[in-house]
Predict the structure.
Amino acid sequence: MKRIATAAIAAGLTALGLDPAAAQTKAPLTILRVIDADRYDPIRSTATAAVEALFMLADTLVSLDFDLKTVKPLLAKSWTVSPDGKTYTFDLRQDVKFCDGRPMTAADVVYSLKRWIDPAARSPVANRAGKVKEISAPDDHTVVYELQEPFSDLLYQLTLAFASVVDKASVETLGANFGVQGFNATGPYCWVSWTPRQELVMKKNPYYNWGPPMYQNPSPQVDQVVWKVVPEANTLMAAMQAKQADLTYYPPLFSIDTMKRVPGLTVQQQPDYIYDVFFAFRVNKPVSDDPAIRRAANMAINRDAIVKAVYFGHGTPLRSLLSPAVLDYDAKAAELLPHYDPAGAAKVLDEAGWKPGADGIRAKDGQRASFIVYGLRDDQNPRISEAMQADLRKVGLDMQVQLWDATVGWGKLATQEFDSFMMSYPYGTATEAMNLYFKSTQAPTPNRMNWKDARTDQLLEAAATAVDPAKRTEANAELQRQLTEANVWIPIATRQLWLVSSDRVGGARPHGLYGAGLYKGLDLTLKR
Amino acid sequence: MGETVAVTSGNSPHAGFALARRASLLRVLLGEPVGAVALAAVVLLVLAAVFAPWLAPGDPYGGDLADTLKLPGEAGLLGADGQGRDMVTRLLYGLRTTLAMSLAAVVIGCGIGGVVGFAAAYYPRVSGLLMRSMDVLLSFPAILFGLALAAIVGPGIVAVVIALSIATVPLMARVVRGSAVVVMRQDYIEAARALGLRDRQILVKYVLLNCLSPIFVFVTLRFGQVILLGALLSFIGLGAQPPTAELGAMAADGRNFLFFAPHVSVLPSLLIFLVVLAFNILGDALRDALDPTLRR
Amino acid sequence: MWRNVVQRLLLALPVLLGVLLLGFLLMQVVPNDPAVVRAGPTATVEVIEAIRRDLGLDKPLAVQFGLYLSRLLRGDLGISNINNMPVATELGNTVGPTLELMVASLVWSIPLGIAMGTVSAYRRHSWIDRIIMAVSVAGVSVPVFLLGLGLVWLFGFYWQVLPFTGRTGPIWTLEGLAGIALPALTLGGVFVGPVARMTRSAVLDVLGADHVRTARAKGVGERAVVLRHALRNALIPVVTLIGLQIGFLLGGAVVVETIFSWPGIGRLAVGAILSSDAPMAQGTIIILSVGFILINLAVDMLYAVLDPRVGQT
């Protein structure tokens, strides 16, 4: 029945000149994703949706290998660091050209980096550049990056899209429309057009042959790339299976096993991916300010069961403050994280004076053990929060869930209304993660826990300004132990990155820096 | 734009005589097999919703994650949802929430809309202003209201009820005004005025009672629409929030598993379908029963 | 008749002003801060404050509304708070596909609905009447997204005969038609039922009316009675229904646009409100209400054509 109907309809469409298979040949490389970015200006766009495209449109001084740890050359052939750790000198390639054909010089790099840290530019990520003293270009192919104090994370931060080199003339001509109506940089692909919420079209940069060394081919092989937004998960999955698109790394988790079985689809995982999901307490709110509550909550959550059910086996339970894959991960700190033990959790609460009330929810001095959690309404959070809610209720803790659509959510997560929150984030080093969230000066956002602790600040400073890697590791280790013992966070899971490609595509390999699954998009080829 | 109202055919002048036959309405309705079945279905669904806590075999909010997405028969009669909760239980509680939510929206929306409609019919001086305001509401899509409200009070049942009420007000106002204007032209209203009856007495005793049948039909049909609109709001994440069991939210959230555990989304959709179907058929049957020209 | 049109248009102006004010106030009470939205999740308070000043959000409300109206009168819809795109450009990009989708949905569903309703009324109480009404009522009672996803699964995935990931070209080309087929089938599918039911009851109403009885008495055949007399008068409530259902259609359109990645105005409006992008939200509200007003005006004009008596009142 199916075959007859298929044949009949296909024949009908062919008669109309509408052969669905023929329509696909010679089509541009189509990448599916679920959400678009607000704009594509490197210093203003912090969403993965912007970063994943910017890596293809623009280059950075240095690049990151597929292990997501090793810094490699890109625009800079090589670099040196002064013994005091305050001066970085980059030696630039001299064959780099912008999409409009103009050769790139050190002045372009200096302009772009200064634009990033200029307070007037309002970059939300300027603090990632470290405490800059001066950035200068002594000659056309040398850039000197001087810091007020050492910044151990600098090279890694310079691999991110925020540090992209862009064309000054293009920025000034387009003004606020830079990255909206046009873009000019030195990436492997060039901006063609953008239709918000629909598609971003790029074409091959004809001059490009300076791809980073971890790729086999330094030049792009695909003429045109279309990033297409398909907001509905079921549609995205069906589109991949029906070969209406070539690549995606946003497959719905439930579909991964199915996709693996579809002939002509290849599914690959990035084993070194770091994108953590955590739950965090506000430490300055009643109930959640009690370390006993936080510890008990950490013991009450059956992390493994939740991750298994919610991620369909395609998420990794996170049993430490930071991912074990990250630089400076401390195994001893991980041992301090309480194990799943509901009976123990009840005991901790009993001892701290939280007694069960008539409705099963505990109370202490007239205060109910109840707290509100805010989070974004993505594919997993509703289910994670519901499961946590059920686990917590079993030990007498009442968690009220309030999830928000992404765009409303960030505003809501900047308020003082909630007692706890759920979040997920990509990061590369322990220094980066903990400086972002635990520094007292980062409160109230992004330090939404309002964690203000002198010892923490001291250690964060020590890790960030360490010149000796051993000292940095040591400071980061102590930080992880302190924060784990305080139970400020309940680590939940590390997301996995799965790249699905059709048999029309060759050379696809998942990368995943800042969530960008294709990074520079080099080595990709189209077979048909 | 507000001058011509024909939302239901019950607006025909014959509707004015419905009052006299009110007592026999139920008999007429039960005389039609389709109407009788629809009425029985509605009664049954309402009873199931009211007695959900006693009928449900399990806990609507506590599930066993080991049962996640079990198919019907594997765990419980109708399987388990994405949290391993029993589907029968979820459906019963979901029905309860959905009916309560829609009832609230219809009662509030039709209440306000009815008052506005009667006022516009009875006081021609304010009619223009009132009906223009209704036009403003009408040309403001309900879904955008829902969104804004969700941002203000937080997404959830309250936002849905307010949004759906607001979307119902102008429609109800039009229906009521349309039929009330027809009634107002009748001689007995003149007579009542001449007798010196006060406005409120006339409105309640004559106008309201004689408009009852189109109102009744509208409310019944609107009930079904409101349930569907609620499901629509859930689709974009504005409906009931987890872990609340609500049919629209269950159907919308469950669609993530549509292709391999379809029961999680399809069963609540089916129940929505049944509820809306029952109310629609009941509305149609009511209309047929109330409109003598359609009967043979 | 033209005087009537002008009169109606003038009457629509205060309604439009009301819509504008309502939209503006709504966007004000929405507690999201566009500055926060724009700054992103890891921004610090200083950056958020600076962006808020840049956007002019620190001025008093009345001033903001006054400025907005005066710009609007000069034809300037403003630019998006979020991505700096001119509102007019974004509207221009989305209105076309939305109109296409509406037309493609209505162009098959309304005639089909009217035909089904007429047949149903003509053959009332027969088995064909019961089947048609069962299908119609069922059609009204299905959640849109289930219908849409079902079609994706059947035509796009199982049979793999139609594209379903967005607009594929202008509607007058074959590619465009293939691309719009599934969205139009979904959105129109919701419409067939109400039209059929309304037509049936309206035709039945008219069949009982005096002038139809007269025609019958004169010996005009039943088929001719239905087609010539009844259907024409029955179209009036049907046309009204269409005018009123446009709002509901938009709700369905948001779902259809999401499922089929259709570049329409529904998702633009939803996104703008969610991200507190006031200029963009206002722009979409204006377009949607003007559309609603114009459609209802057209409906009223159709009355005059269908029933000359209405035109005089």
